Amino acid sequence: MKNPDRREISVIVSCFNEEDNIEKCLRRIVRTVPGAEVLVIHGGKDRTADIAETVALEHPGIRVIRNKEDRGKGHAIKVGVREASADIMVQMDADLQFMPEEIPEVVRPIRDDRAEVSFGCRFMKRSKVENYRFDFLRVLGNRVVNGYVSLLGRQEFRDVTTGFKAWTRRAIDDIAFKDDGFVYEVEIALRASLKGYGVAMVPITYCNRLGGFSGHGRGWRESASIAWTGARILFFATMIRFSLW
Ligand SMILES: Nc1nc2c(ncn2[C@@H]2O[C@H](COP(=O)(O)OP(=O)(O)OP(=O)(O)O)[C@@H](O)[C@H]2O)c(=O)[nH]1
Ligand SMILES: [Mg+2]
What domain count does the chain have? Predict the structure, then answer.
């Protein structure tokens, strides 16, 4: 018999000091998918988890996990996948660069049985970009990474590093990504493709971070972290393609 408490979608929200954004983010998620389980995985030291717990008092579908041993975004998503109870999971950044209102669009290809992994893409013709702050390193990095992963995966990827994706329990358990940092995003794309899972690309709306600071750091640290992440992505993508990792 179907467990009556079982929720249809689990939304995993990884956070690193997002006290400026988390409440708005959670309220918008709950308004869009009221029946969802929402897992907040906080790895920082600010009031994000306290704020999320206050919102959870009103919405029992929200669960807050203080990720004490947090080792990066990939690690937080791993914890989310482990804890999620639904068969369909959505990964959504907490900083409101992506629109919680578009969760149904990103999940649709999975619901329609057209794919088991779905990417909300910023760089498609029908994607909408609002208030975009041009950042040479990120734009160049995304182009190189998308091109390279498409080549290795023999399928066109439009936005591998997007913070808005969905997948099925079956696919994510089989993909079993390893990286604890930002490389996990490329692992999902490439391993899904090499394992033959249907992958969907959905154009979405994207804007700048509304508050708080990048998990990549600030100033020169942000640029250095982005460059280092790009280099790691290219290295590990090659390793995955040749089954060396
Ligand atoms: N738990 C956890 N979450 C993280 C970590 N790093 C980033 N996040 C969260 O993952 C999401 C994406 O990280 P961002 O810092 O927004 O990365 P970004 O989008 O490339 O950078 P910006 O454009 O500056 O926002 C956000 O919700 C972050 O709070 C981390 O080390 N641990
Ligand atoms: Mg962000």
Answer: 1
